[in-house]
Structure formats: C-alpha cells, structure tokens
Request: fold
Amino acid sequence: LNNAPVNMGQTLCVCSRGSITIDSKKYYFVQKLDEGGFSFVDLVEGAKDGHFYALKKILCHDRQARQEAQTEVEMHQMFNHPNILSLVAHSFVEGGGKTEAWLLLPYIRKGTLWSVLEKLREKGSLMPEKQILKIFRGICSGLKAIHDKGYAHRDLKPTNVLLDDDDRPLLMDLGSMNRARIEVRGSREAMTVQDWAAQRCTISYRAPELFNVESHCIIDERTDIWSLGCVLYCMMMLEGPYDLIFQKGDSVALAVQNPVTIPASCRYSEGLRVLLSSIMVSNAQERPNIVWVLDQVQDLLSHSPNTQTNMV
Reply:
C-alpha cells in the first residue's frame, strides 16, 4: 500500500476547500447534507460572514424542469414570513450542456420536524401537548400566508417542515406550489391533475380528492388542510396515519376514503383529538379552511395548562 503511486491532483483536491460564488459572494463547501431524485443539498459557509447556509442544487434536465425551478424561486420570493423558509440568493448555472438551479437557503441546524419526531420515537417519548400546539400554530400560520396569496403548498409533510432552535417551524420545499384553485373541465384535465399529483404530492399525505380526480370539479387549497391533519397526527403518534398502509403495499387511495381512526392508546386531550378529526375530513367540501383551524389551535393553546407534562 505504501508503494502506491500518489496522485497529486487528487491530494490537492482534498486539501483545498471547494468554493462557489452566488451574487458576487463567495461560499465554501463544507459537506453534503441530503440527496433526492433531481436535487441535492450541500452545507456551505459564507466566506465573508462565516454563517452556514444550505445550498440546494436542482438538476434541470429539460426546459420544463428549469421552469419548475424558476417557479420555486418565485414562490420563495413572494413571501417574507417567519414560518416560511426565506431564499438568501439564487443562480442558474450552465455548464457541460446542463443547467443547475442553485438556491441558497438559511441552514437550520436542528433539521426537520420528522427528524425530531424520529428521535422521540427512538427514546420512547411523546411530544408534550403544548409543544405540539405551538409548533402546529406556526405551521398553520405559514400555510395561511400561502393561502392568503391564492396559492397552495401541495406537499405539506413533516420532512418539509424545518424546526429552528426555538422550535419555530419553517415551511420549505415550495417546488410543488401552484394556484390554490384548479378548475377541472373534462376527463382529460382530470387525468392531467391526477398524474401531476401522483408525481408531486407525497402519497401518504395526499388528499383523497387527488387520487381519483372527478371530471368536473374544483380542487382548492383544502388539499393542504388534509395534509396538515396528517402532520398533526404524525406529531401525536410519531408516524403518519397512512405510513404503515403504504409500507405494507396496501391501497392508500382506498384508506383515505374513510374517516381517520385515532388509536385508543392516544394520550392527548379530547380537544386535540377533536381538532384532528375535524381537519381530516375525506370530503373536501366539508373540510375547514386554515382560518378556522388557526382559531381552534389558538383556543386550545389559551386553555392548555402551562405545566408541561412530559409523556413517556
């Protein structure tokens, strides 16, 4: 092994810190954070300010993918809200016949809501009710800002919610966002919406009306309310209501047609359980809007005791 030839180029590569420039500012590569189908996220450090950032790189393999990345940038720029992840800077990088969209985002050290729930599950703990309500209120607040502008998130789930050190939730991954109200006229349009939902809306958090889209209907932002209910369920039970059904290979499309069942072992207050049941209504027309949900959460928070009992 000692006699192996040394590749100087490679050695130099390892020693020097790779750097990139966005908006005339330099950032150093620190490490890889995450990888998805057509995107990956790196941890980078600002050369000037020494702050850490998450650099999301989206591979745009065709014109449509580039347009989708551009839409994601525009969605971020539309909001300046404490519960929606802000965009620090962005750039479209051309090279070798490929285009990459670079989105520079704040780095949230604590990670996603899902990673926090996973740690609780490993410890055999539950999240205290007051903490659930506070985080949930922040998620609802971010969602209300999106709905107020006439848009829907369409892919709300615990892995798309970041939690900062103060437990403030930040909605992220705005790549599936589109206009809240979609008018479906005819079976061809219905199929287009259904196919789009199958690609962009995570199956175990997808609203019932997106599995079998009717030929003449209106899909609106209440798809997010269903997903919001799934997120609340996940915070209470440490797994999504349809995660196991999906993992077993059973039909999620069939399961979402029935009212959600709250396990008898649930240790939370009746108020929280009633809220969950009122959000997860299969018929979209009977599902509440975000203003109503926020009011209920606020009401529960104002009546919940200040003593936080850790549930084990």
Q: What stands out?
A: Residues 1-15, 307-312 have pLDDT under 50 and may be disordered. Residues 129-148 form the longest helix (20 residues). The radius of gyration is 22 Å. The chain has two domains: 18-106, 113-303.
